[in-house]
Amino acid sequence: MAGSRCSRKVRLTAFIAIFFAFFATGSSTAQVPLLMWSSDGLPPLALPAAGHIISNDQLTAYLTTALGSGPHTVLLFLQDKLSKDDFTVFGGVFGNKQDSAFQNLEAAVQTSSSSVTLPALEWSGSSAILALLQEKLGVSPLLVDADTLSHLSINTSVSNLLLINLPYCTGLHKSCKEVLHNNDEIIGEVLGIMKAKNVPYTAIYTGLQPSRVISETSVSDQSVGRSLLQAIGPDVRPIMFNVSGSPCIMLWAQNLNISLSSSSAWIDLATETPSLTGSMCNSSNSVLVLNYSSGYILSFAMSQRFYPVSARNWFTLDSVQLQFNGLTASFIGRRGIYAPAEYSFHCQSVNSFQDALLVPNNTNQNTTQWRLKFNDFQIQGFGLANGTNFSYANDCAGFFTPGIWMGLLTSLLMLLIFVYGLHMIMQLNTMDRFDDPKGPSISVPQSE
Question: Which of 113, 193, 282, 435 has its CA 20 to 30 A from that of 376?
Fold first, then answer.
């Protein structure tokens, strides 16, 4: 029996998540999912067609049928934000049941007498579902939590609307999975209290607003015909520091991400326009200082020198500093970020924590967790002879990678073995003298 229940639970979770994922490619209309289950029973609802969004009128008609006769106790689990992606990403469907963030919710839907799943419900406002339930039940909502509910006396002879507010992740302190798991624990605790009180109920789990809104351009606004697979991005201008009317330092990056701890969210400074106060450049040193209105200061210190071995000048990015609230974190880039003085340096990813080109050099314990991650990064601090354009870029990804060297050396070794074997075969000589069968045979004496 335990194995049967486990298999049914896995199939149920897989159905919910795959069902939600199946509807994830629908219209750009804002929508929220809705789960409804009851301890008494619900009227049947036909499965909506693929890509169909349930309108408010359709939901109103169904709730009229489900809550129309007799008193009902409705538990409304109203989360701040909710979308189909939350189920598909954190549902733990494909072999990761122990990682599911909705274990109590899945168990409640499975053990209920009947349930209804609306993967795409038209969202018209944050208070739409609450106002609709108030209208159908004719009562005002009562905001409760698990502790309040355990001491609350519920009169089943009249309708009751119990509202349980659930938070959603903000990306600052807890991850989305942790918040959803905590919400699931609250749902399980509330349902356990209702079961202990032996009160029949109808439960609804939905969101105040979508957690992810994907906007799509109308087809009528797009040109019809063939087009490139990769869309042209917005015009992003590089950051330039000018001296005497001509550019001295140039920097461009798709993202300038910073994080003040390993668990905090990334902050993209490239979305802000910085002030360049404190920047300077001369023939041997350049410093680019980016002052942001949010309080962050990002500094890039570069220098150039002559190397007799290569008989040319090379520039290096000596250090990158991040300052915030009086604290400073320093990162050394001399070993990995360099180029000829008349070139620029480019790298698809420059970070301080994985395959780091920027090595942390922090002596303050408060800044040891600070991290940098620059995407599509290009910088030039000397030899800007092309006006507002970067010079030829020296890329961090060299042509001869370790894999290429291993392949070349292995091929060379196999070629040497082949040549040696061929040489040995060519040195073999056939016999050119044979015994004459008509002549006397060779006699070997048997005794001395």
Answer: 282
